[in-house]
Design goal:
Blueprint (H helix, E strand, L loop, with lengths): L4 H6 L7 E3 L4 E4 L2 E4 L4 H19 L10 E2 L11 E2 L2 E5 L5 E2 L3 H18 L5 H4 L4 H9 L7 H11 L3 H17 L9 E4 L6 E3 L5 E3 L4 E4 L1 H16 L4 H8 L1 H16 L6 H15 L1
Parallel strand pairs: 4-10
Antiparallel strand pairs: 1-2, 2-3, 3-6, 5-6, 7-9, 8-11, 9-10
Length: 283
């Protein structure tokens, strides 16, 4: 993966960047560079993440298996994103964690910290118009899935007709579970825990780049389980457990809608999840 010279220059790292397998990042010097980042969203969460990362590392009595956070690094001009690239300290020896219990446990600790650190939603999260933000608004009943919105998602997220149809089916199922706006409290949560929770050599969970959203924490957990099963090969019974519980079924449907509307496709795995949920609704 080629990193533009301007990005290397502003992050003050040498050339010779090397992709880090399985992480979506590129190592350059002592930094891990990540492409495709939204400047407004990263700028909203990086200062918070940096403070929490330092506080956790310096906490008295810290154990070798306690939660750690990646330390974001600003560019020389003070920006957190340069031409779509963000930077964080490279952490050697960590591996992506596919264990559902570990990922959810790390997420709950992180969300508790974020809930205290950020009490009001950053404007970047309230005003977002990116595909993820639009898809979440549809999933939570804040925006209808109109033809105009579908066209917009087709242009920006590569949305296909099968995914639209499956998302519409999921929204119909969701309407049977949800009457009116979701009343639960919102907070800053990690929208992509799966793949961004790693394990260090001694077993400490290490959360890399935070993908922020302002939603109920259980929605982030349902999203993590869905992503872990469909993307990282976690055991399918974890989905069945969520589908069997009335309090988590709607969030699993919302997570499915977001995946579909952000270009994840509409393959047999997605149809199976929707069938599982639909079966629970009529069973």
């Amino acid at each position: 993966m080629l990193v533009p010279p301007r990005v290397l220059d502003l992050f003050a790292v040498p050339g010779g960047a090397v992709a880090v397998p399985g992480t979506g990042t590129v190592r350059a010097g002592d930094l891990a560079l990540r492409p495709g980042r939204d400047a407004a969203l990263v700028g909203a969460v990086s200062p918070v993440q940096a403070r929490l990362a330092v506080r956790l590392d310096e906490a008295p009595g810290r154990g070798h298996r306690d939660l750690r956070l990646g330390l974001p690094v600003p560019a020389r001009d003070g920006s957190w994103v340069v031409d779509g690239w963000s930077a964080a300290r490279h952490e050697p020896g960590t591996e992506v964690c596919g264990d559902v219990a570990v990922v959810l446990g790390a997420g709950r600790l992180l969300h508790a910290l974020l809930d205290v650190a950020v009490r009001t939603p950053p404007s970047a999260l309230v005003e977002r118009e990116d595909p993820r933000g639009l898809a979440e608004a549809v999933a939570f009943g804040e925006r209808p899935l109109t033809d105009a919105l579908v066209e917009r998602l087709v242009a920006t997220a590569g949305l296909g007709v099968p995914a639209v149809r499956l998302a519409q089916e999921a929204l119909t199922a969701l309407a049977l579970l949800s009457a009116g706006p979701d009343p639960r409290p919102r907070q800053l949560v990690h929208a992509a825990l799966a793949g961004n929770v790693h394990l260090e050599a001694l077993g400490a969970p290490f959360v890399t780049a935070i993908e922020p959203t302002w939603r109920p924490a259980p929605f982030a957990e349902a999203t993590a389980v869905l992503d872990l099963v469909l993307d990282l090969g976690a055991p399918a019974p974890h989905l069945d457990e969520l589908a069997s519980r009335e309090e988590t079924r709607a969030d699993l449907l919302r997570a499915l809608v977001v995946r579909l509307l952000t270009g994840a496709g509409a393959d047999d795995a997605h149809r199976t999840v929707l069938g599982l949920l639909a079966g629970r609704l009529v069973g």
